[in-house]
Write a structure and sequence with these properties.
By secondary structure, the chain is of the alpha/beta class. It has a single domain, classed as Amidase signature (AS) domain (Amidase signature (AS) enzymes), CATH 3.90.1300. Helices cover 38% and strands 14% of the residues. The protein is globular and about 70 Å long. Bound molecules: glutamine (GLN).
Length: 447
Amino acid sequence: VEHYLQRIEEEKHLNAFVEVFGEEARQEAARITEKIAAGSAGRLAGMVIGIKDIICYKSHGVSVGSKILENYKSIFSSTVVERLLAEDAIIIGRLNCDEFAMGGSNENSFYGPVKNYVDNTKVAGGSSGGSAVAVQAGLCLAALGTDTGGSVRQPAAFCGVVGVKPTYGRVSRHGIVAYASSFDQVGPLANSVEDAALILEIIAGPDEYDSTVSLKPVPSYSGNLKSSGKKKIAILSEVLEAEGLDPEIKQLTENTIARLKGDGHTVEAVSFPYLEYVVPTYYILTTAEASSNLARYDGVHYGYRSPNATDLESTYKKSRTEGFGAEVKRRIMIGTFVLSAGYYDSFYGKAQKVRQLIRAKTDEILSKYDFILMPTTPTPAFGIGEKMSDPVVMYLADIFTVQASLAGIPAVSLPLGNNSNNLPLGIQFLGKRFGEGDLLAFSKYIM
Ligand code: GLN
């Protein structure tokens, strides 16, 4: 704990933490040290973990990168936090993220951007940018993030760490501030597949507080990390042809394919004719869900209340106007539009149907192949400020991560190389629904 607290202090300029629970972490360390001596410590004893500032931890702040929740304190703990604590993990602080997890660069945070540790002029990725940089820079051993459309995998790729997005319904969302409820999943970021597997198996599994969590028992991921047999892996032909794919990322993908073939695995190109629809479908559905989820920030129930309000109507209006940042407002407007009478059928209803097609096609591919391989991102970490002026350019950068989110399947990003400027590059593997075990074992083999 002392080591990490010192590291956090040294790297304060990275802006990874919104709050450090220093004294509390020291006390926990002392308590758990005694448990270790007594032989009664949990399975995460000694693991110092940071949590994305979207995960509720009783009596601690949770601001989700927003002014609207700046001074808000959780009144209960999320299921994932309860499970980490029950196994004696030490939670060292809460990590910066894009406001309401909306973004892919951590530049939408009320607390400012997080800097990439390799190159401080580059973004960390997002929305779980603080989680990725904290692991990258050694400010904690592992971190929790959330992934709605890539927010664990994309910052993991930009920062050279392992990131896992579980199957939708594998991990409880109880106590996770909602962005888009039919997509959101909590996932670990770590330096090794072993750490990610152990954390995932502890946070996963049935929860009486979230009816969307599957009742399927959680296998021991960490105890079964030996991948056996030759695998069948699909690459999507449209992916390697995608416009704007960075040549060094393409090369790394091809090298990975060659390596897998060399090891005797089958790698085949299959067509996925919906690639151009994944980003629009994702943004219609997630903004719709967000506009509904964010209706609760009304200046009355909790969070920021404008001091300039004079009646109920102006309390709503001014609190939301002053409390939300530009990107969140943009998405509330898009979401409200696609749900509005007269437009619902042509946008929201249509996108629901396209989601089903994407899901069915992805499942069909995964009925014939063990995994789908693709880059995590089309480019390495870009410059801070570089894409902020054009939201559409920023959205299109999610092209490779949102398919797994729309389909609800698990996916990992693995740090398999660096570019010529030493920036990390991530390769992504998508697995079968609830196939985290095989996916993690294969990840371990390929790392
Ligand atoms: N970049 C995507 C978005 O802005 C993903 C965010 C996420 O997964 N939370 O919606």
